């Protein structure tokens, strides 16, 4: 049903994934039918507010959801054609770091404070690759140079001796050293200065070109995705609400949530009295609206929206949106609600 | 590659090695230095005991209950044995017992705490209840019970002391592990495909050492007291072993007539415990990041 990447070429293919957390207070449906594809060599942006399920999605791909309480209850995750949802921890371990790597939001705490950069890189290499310490060290130096660190004695330095930007470079080096096919970057620039952000994004893009590594870039910063991504997926409350290529999404945002997100970016050239924000709050995970999950905050909300869950609908080529507004009257009438367009 | 290279070759930051940093704050801490001087002194005399003493520690003589003199510095006991010699040889026993008892409880306690904290679930429940049961008894009472079962003797006393100290280290380790396992670098290690064992021993354990080291030093002091207490009760070292606690017990009838028979072993215990407590307190201050200038 999806456009874009032909079946054979997608490196990551998540379809109708459902992941629930079984807590004492009830079942939290953290991911509720998410479809997501990342093609070979493609950079896909996954955007959404905190708690919308984007990080959980990425951890699910890595097989790092703590079970219990989390559990994948439906759907599938395919990595280069192989179904990995039911893989054992042992099987997953073989591809983690080697075929799929991940970098995290906080470079300050993502490196072990007790070991040198060299030790940690060598360790990362030797988990998957049989080679001598010497070989691993020269490999480390090579990759560090690729990520832009040419510093004498870097291998012997401890994390606390490096700045945040440098540490994030080291993390990227660790993630890229075995030339994985997919890099998941979970808000890689959120904790960094704006000036460093651009450098890190540049670096990721050039690694993408050089190694052909696909990148799933998770962020809440629309500016970042605009710059980087071939395709953008917007998530809200555990669901994908809009999906399009970057230009289309920015030119013609169709889901009211995406519109709200775009409006929330402060603009320098306009003299706004107040900054725009989407009214209301993300619904509590234990208390999701019956129909469209965005209905309580939506300015275009209709009768249907309260009763009937919208599906992802192709409003134009390569542009999907989960909103009743764009679906024909027919579709709405097929649903049980009375369709009154307001 | 179009990546802009950050080249700061010209200003390589000269920073001290971690141990150098540690040594500096250590030497600045007065009680840590005094404590370690006392401990080093005790270790030294324990090692060179035969050189220091002109007598055998079990050699009896006809000079019974002599007060301190040039010949017998600390006097003699009721069997005419030289108390100076016995106190010095006693350092060997106390340090030996303290060391192995503490190492034993660190190894076992840390291992159990590591498993409980990392895996959680039923393992945590079982291990934590065992700790609770051990802690429900007063330590020395439990040690007495164990020595009674195992039979009196210095080695059994050591085992008993090791066992009663297990929960202290186990709980300490468990709480550190619970904190450290949520750290980002542990998640990052998992995301790199490392095995649980490697993450546990290479990433979590080294980051949990500090409190264990401090507690270990302080526990050394308690272990020395506990060994002396068991000796005093006749359950630890057996005569003619020159154990400080045993010497105190033997001197009880002569407190008024020959006080030196109890003063010197008592002082030895005080000095040892003081040394380890000072060092332990010092280490706690040094490792506490809030105390760093």
Automatic annotation (TrEMBL), chain B:
Keywords: Cell membrane, Membrane, Transmembrane, Transmembrane helix, Transport
UniProt-listed Pfam families: BPD_transp_1, OppC_N
One CC-aspect GO term: plasma membrane
Keyword Cell membrane recorded: yes
Topology in the lipid bilayer: Multi-pass membrane protein
Gene3D superfamilies given in the database record: MetI-like
Localization terms from the record: Cell membrane
Cross-referenced PROSITE patterns: ABC_TM1
Location of the ABC transmembrane type-1 domain: 91-280
InterPro entries in the cross-refs: ABC_transport_permease (IPR053385), BP-dependent_transpt_permease (IPR050366), MetI-like (IPR000515), MetI-like_sf (IPR035906), OppC_N (IPR025966)
NCBIfam families recorded: Opp2C (NF045474)
Family: Belongs to the binding-protein-dependent transport system permease family. OppBC subfamily.
Protein name, as recorded: Peptide ABC transporter permease
Organism from which the protein derives: Thermoflavimicrobium daqui
């Amino acid at each position: 049903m999806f456009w874009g990447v032909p079946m054979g070429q997608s490196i990551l293919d998540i379809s109708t994934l459902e992941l629930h957390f079984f807590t004492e207070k009830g079942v939290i449906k953290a991911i509720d039918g998410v479809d997501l594809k990342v093609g070979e060599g493609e950079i896909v942006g996954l955007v959404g507010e905190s708690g919308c399920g984007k990080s959980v999605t990425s951890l699910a791909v890595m097989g790092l959801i703590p079970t219990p309480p989390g559990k994948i209850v439906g759907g599938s995750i395919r990595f280069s054609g192989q179904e990995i949802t039911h893989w054992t921890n042992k099987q997953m371990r073989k591809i983690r770091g080697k075929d799929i790597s991940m970098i995290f939001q906080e470079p300050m705490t993502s490196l072990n404070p007790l070991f040198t950069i060299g030790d940690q890189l060598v360790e990362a290499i030797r988990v998957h690759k049989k080679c001598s310490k010497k070989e691993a060290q020269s490999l480390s130096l090579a990759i560090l140079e690729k990520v832009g660190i040419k510093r004498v004695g870097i291998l012997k330095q401890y994390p606390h001796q490096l700045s945040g930007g440098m540490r994030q470079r080291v993390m990227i080096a660790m993630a890229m050293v075995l030339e994985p096919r997919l890099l998941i970057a979970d808000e890689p620039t959120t904790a960094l200065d704006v000036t460093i952000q651009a450098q890190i994004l540049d670096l990721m893009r050039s690694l993408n070109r050089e190694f052909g590594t696909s990148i799933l870039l998770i962020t809440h910063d629309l500016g970042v995705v605009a710059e980087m991504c071939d395709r953008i997926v917007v998530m809200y409350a555990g669901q994908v609400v809009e999906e399009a290529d970057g230009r289309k999404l920015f030119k013609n945002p169709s889901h009211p949530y995406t519109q709200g997100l775009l409006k929330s970016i402060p603009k320098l050239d306009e003299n706004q009295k107040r900054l725009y924000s989407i009214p209301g709050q993300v619904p509590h995970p234990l208390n999701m609206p019956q129909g469209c999950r965005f209905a309580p905050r939506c300015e275009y909300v209709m009768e249907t929206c309260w009763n009937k869950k919208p599906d992802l609908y192709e409003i134009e080529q390569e542009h999907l949106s989960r909103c009743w507004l764009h679906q024909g009257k027919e579709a709405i009438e097929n649903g049980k609600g009375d369709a009154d367009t307001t | 590659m179009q990546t802009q290279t950050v080249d700061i070759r010209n200003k390589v930051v000269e920073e001290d090695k971690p141990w150098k940093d540690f040594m500096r704050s250590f030497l600045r801490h007065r009680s840590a230095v005094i404590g370690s001087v006392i401990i080093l002194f005790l270790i030294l005399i324990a090692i060179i005991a035969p050189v220091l003493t002109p007598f055998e520690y079990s050699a009896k003589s006809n000079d019974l209950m002599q007060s301190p003199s040039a010949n017998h510095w600390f006097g003699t006991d009721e069997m005419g044995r030289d108390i100076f010699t016995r106190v010095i040889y006693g350092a060997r026993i106390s340090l030996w017992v303290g060391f192995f008892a503490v190492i034993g409880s660190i190894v076992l306690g840390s291992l159990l705490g590591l498993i409980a904290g990392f895996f959680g679930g039923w393992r945590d429940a079982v291990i934590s209840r065992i700790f609770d049961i051990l802690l429900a008894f007063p330590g020395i009472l439990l040690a007495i019970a164990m020595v009674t079962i195992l039979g009196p003797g210095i080695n059994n006393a050591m085992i008993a002391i090791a066992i009663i100290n297990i929960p202290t280290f186990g709980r300490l380790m468990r709480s550190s592990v619970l904190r450290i396992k949520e750290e980002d670098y542990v998640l990052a290690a998992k995301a790199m495909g490392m095995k649980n064992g490697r993450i546990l021993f290479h990433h979590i354990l080294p980051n949990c050492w500090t409190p264990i080291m401090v507690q270990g030093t302080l526990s050394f002091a308690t272990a020395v007291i506990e060994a002396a207490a068991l000796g005093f009760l006749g359950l630890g070292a057996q005569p003619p072993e020159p154990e400080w606690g045993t010497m105190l017990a033997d001197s009880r009838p002569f407190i008024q007539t020959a006080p030196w028979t109890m003063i010197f072993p008592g002082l030895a215990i005080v000095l040892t415990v003081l040394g380890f407590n000072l060092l332990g307190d010092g280490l706690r201050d040094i490792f506490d990041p809030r105390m760093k200038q």
